[in-house]
Amino acid sequence: MQKILPITLFLLLIGMACSDLQELSDFENLENSPQLAFPLINSTFTLQDALENIDENADILVDSDGLLRFYYQSDTTIRTSQEVFDVLNRTLPPLVPVIDTLIGFPVINDEGIGVSSVIFKEGRLEYSFFNSNSSDIEVTVTVLQMFRDGQPLQQTHEVFSFQDLPVATFDLTDVELRPQNDSLFFKYEAYNRSNERVTVDNFLMLQKDVDYSYAAGVFTRSLLENLPDTLEFDFTEQIDGDLYFEEPKVTVTVDNSFGFPAELSFGRFDIITKDGSLLPLESDLIDNGISFNFPSFEEIGEVKETQFVFDHTNSNLPKVIEASPIGLIYELDATTNPNEDTPGFLTDESIFAYSVEAEFPLLGTITDLKVRDTLDIDINFESLESLEEMEIKMVTDNGLPLSASVQAYFMSGTQILDSLFIDGARDIIQAASIDSDGNVTKMNSQTTFIPIDNPRLENIKSANKLLLEATFNTSQDQEVSVRIENQQTLGIRMGVKANL
Amino acid sequence: MTTSKYIVLTLLLPFFGLAQQELSLHSLSNVWQANRLNPAVMPDNGFTIGLPSVYNRLAIENVTLNDLLLENVGGQTVIYLEQALTKLEGDNALQNNFSLETLSFDFRLKENLHLSLHHATRFNIGANYPKSLAELIWLGNGAFVGETIEFAPEFDILAYHEFGLGIATKIGKNISLGAKIKLLNGIGHAGTSDRNQLSLFTDEDIYQLTLDADYQLNSSAILTYDGFGELDFGLPSGGLNFLDLVSKNVGIALDFGGIIEFEKISFGISVLDIGSLHWRTKVNNYTLDGTFEYDGIDAVRDYLDGNTTFENVTDTLRMIFDVQETQEAYSTSIPTRLYANATYQILESTKASAIFYGGWQRDNFQTAVGLNLQQDFTSWLSAGAAYMIFEGANSSLGLNANAQFGPVQIYAITQNIGSVFNPRNNQNADFRVGLNLLFRRD
């Protein structure tokens, strides 16, 4: 017995030690359900940030007092002086038969342009004649109303008897034409060796490659017609609801360097609405036409700008803008020298240009403005396999005078799997407080808890799209126009407590 | 495998160890392995072959295995920390030492002069973890919203081969001296440095996270970190490549011991494992230093710019929690141990001994004391009992036995018999078993 006991004990020790090891290696996975808390989203932004890409046609400008505004600008329509100079070409005779030693031609045309001065940019007068005399002659040719450096154009030639004068040229570059009594006179004086006055035959003069750098005179009334164009407002396409701008503005800007009076008339000036209706913009300015500025003879080369502003004081603009406009159709024509009695000028660089701008300052009200957007969700749910349930905590700090009610739908393709809020859209953003002038006086914060249990999580895991719907309203039940300014921010913070 | 499970398994795995706290082996002076605790111990035999012997000790502070495990409704044993959390204190230690001595030899060169050789593979794990770490893993940071929680664990995982060459001699009639030089070849290491601070604050607002860190890990062949949430933890197999013995991960350790014997009483003292290992292969040093804040992504900005947002969270976390990685060789000390014992021969076949242990675990000095009573029942069978008190753990009752059949000696020791019958309900468990061949006994 004395020996058996220690032996038994000995064997037992070895056996139990081995089983001890075996037991310790047999345990299975960790069974726990920790709760992880972590932040998800932390964003602060201004409405300017949000609106930057809402409309590719618009710029978001900030006034000196911080007020935001939508700003649209059309392309600039330009008419140049080339059209008028083309007419001038028809004023001067292309071919002049000089049948006498002094001959004159009218410098006016059927279109009524009577020039008092023309400066040639380039061109030439070519002429030739035949000496039918039996002796050699000396001929001086003068264009009496064309001047270079104050002197009439003049050239002298010697021609042998019974010979043609090889084609001679007057270079017209920088030459000024000053008609006399609307006429241009050509003169030649031919003398033989005996100093006797003679004549020549077949004297022809013609203009070639003539272009002008300046023209002055009395120009007849003419109409510069332009095609209709459209200034598009895309932001309204993406929204539904009532948007009221208290002080919208449309500005027509005319730049003019033609030196004679002109008037702008409105062939069309209509707002197109979302439902396709055309609402005419009404104003006395539209009814009566508008005269715009022009440079004087002392201001040759300068461009004069004229602006015509249509706003809530002189038009029905606020009313037509209320109807969800998607664009402004305009057709503007110019009538030059409407009274046909004012001398003027133009240069080869003269232009008549106009553009249209529309501005929508964010001063007004928003009522039930609905915005929808669909996002692609690309969450790797494999890594969230052990997620049992979670609670989202959303905190908003709002300095904008806008409240928002939001709902989100988790979708797979077009099928709705679940929604963020079970009981419908929820007010998650409280509008900032405002005073009677619409200025924000206090930011407001709101905290929302969104529980998502396991069955809902299973639905969400197969979602590949998120449909967001938000409805916005301005503060104080839209009774006061609010000011939306650049320094106003909206902070959205979101954290998650997730049970694994 | 999740990171949290890695952490828990590291704390539980029994095949790894720290500084060995053996308080019974000294009493078995006829067992050759007693030489491991005092190199002055010389066997009575002229030639001894130590066959494979295994030692393992697991010590867990404040909790038992039972507190960490649970049988679920499916009958599976699972790790379940809920009950353990109530028992944990601010700081809690865990260690495990495993040693496999493959082969050893002792030769009596001449009277009172012995030469010994041995090889052993050692796996040591030691960890010191705050209660808050276990709470964080088990409950998640969601349970600590609005609080700052310090959770940095300290740990050392050390695995190496040990090749020892020892000499023992007797000086005069009473004094024996011994020394051993050990060539160490590192298998793998992972451990924290003295930069050991991690705290996490979860804000009440939307649970913004702030991590304050001054934390450094060194690893050779065990741990790689490839970014946020991508931690790879692998223990090398421990295979030995003789070509790498002196070229990679090399170290030296020394043992010294002495015994003074009188007629009925003897005293022994030894200092073991004075040395270090230099780690050069597959080295990674990871440092997290600074204050890291994560307060969410600017998803609205991304939405306004037309980007999908949610898949960027992990990338953002990866950028924020920026762990610096280098590959600089480093050294680790081997946990040095000190033993002092006194043995009294009560009767010819009965002796009692008292032993003191002191060992360095990182910056802590741990102690234990034991009382042994050894009885030779026959010339071939001896058994003993011991009572031990380990710092930070309950006291325990140990048993040992060794028997010799011809040249074959077999022995088994446990320092906590309770762990043999009820391992789950004990804070420490250990055993040593082995075989020796004894020849040319005096």
Question: Structural class per helix/strand content of chain B?
Answer: mainly beta
Strand content of chain B: over 45%
- Rg result of chain A: 43 Å
Termini separation of chain B comes to 57 Å
Largest binding interface between chains: A-B, 56 and 72 residues
Q: Estimate the helix proportion of chain A, in percent.
A: 10-25%
Global shape of chain A: elongated
Query: Rounded to an integer, what's the Rg of chain B over CA atoms?
Result: 25 Å
Roughly how much helix do the residues of chain B carry, as a percent range?
Answer: 10-25%
Shape of chain B: elongated
Amount of beta strand of chain A: over 45%
> pLDDT below 50 for ≥5 consecutive residues: which ranges of chain B?
1-18
Poorly predicted runs of chain A are 1-10, 12-26
Describe what this molecule looks like in 3D.
Chain A is mainly beta and 500 residues long. Chain A has six helices and 37 strands. The longest helix of chain A has 21 residues, at 4-24. Residues 1-10 and 12-26 of chain A have low confidence and may be disordered. The termini of chain B are far apart. Chain B is mainly beta and 442 residues long. The radius of gyration of chain B is 25 Å and the shape is elongated. Classes of the chains: A mainly beta (500), B mainly beta (442). Chains A and B meet through helix 1, strand 1, strand 2 and strand 37 of A and helix 1, strand 4, helix 4, helix 5 and strand 22 of B.
In short:
Chain A has six helices and 37 strands.
Topology of helices and strands:
The complex is a heterodimer of chains A (500) and B (442).
Chain A: H1 4-24, E1 28-30, E2 35-46, H2 47-51, E3 58-62, E4 68-73, E5 77-80, H3 82-89, E6 95-97, E7 102-106, E8 114-130, E9 137-148, E10 151-159, E11 168-171, E12 176-177, E13 183-192, E14 197-198, E15 201-218, E16 222-224, E17 229-232, E18 239-245, E19 249-256, E20 262-273, E21 278-280, H4 284-288, E22 290-292, E23 304-310, H5 317-321, E24 325-336, E25 343-347, E26 351-361, E27 363-376, E28 389-398, E29 402-412, E30 415-419, E31 426-429, E32 433-434, E33 440-442, E34 444-452, H6 454-461, E35 465-474, E36 482-483, E37 489-499
Antiparallel strand pairs in A: 2-37, 3-4, 4-26, 5-26, 6-15, 7-13, 8-11, 8-12, 8-15, 9-10, 9-12, 9-13, 13-14, 15-25, 16-24, 17-24, 18-27, 19-23, 19-26, 20-21, 20-22, 20-24, 27-35, 27-36, 28-34, 28-37, 29-30, 29-31, 29-35, 32-33
Chain B: H1 3-12, E1 45-50, E2 53-60, H2 65-68, E3 69-71, E4 77-79, H3 82-85, E5 91-110, E6 113-130, H4 131-139, E7 148-150, E8 154-171, E9 175-202, E10 209-220, E11 223-225, E12 231-233, E13 250-261, E14 265-279, E15 283-294, H5 299-304, H6 312-320, E16 324-326, E17 330-333, E18 337-347, E19 350-361, E20 364-376, E21 381-390, E22 396-405, E23 408-414, H7 417-421, E24 428-441
Antiparallel strand pairs in B: 1-5, 1-24, 2-5, 2-24, 3-4, 5-6, 6-8, 7-9, 8-9, 9-10, 9-13, 10-15, 11-12, 13-14, 14-17, 14-18, 15-16, 18-19, 19-20, 20-21, 21-22, 22-23, 23-24
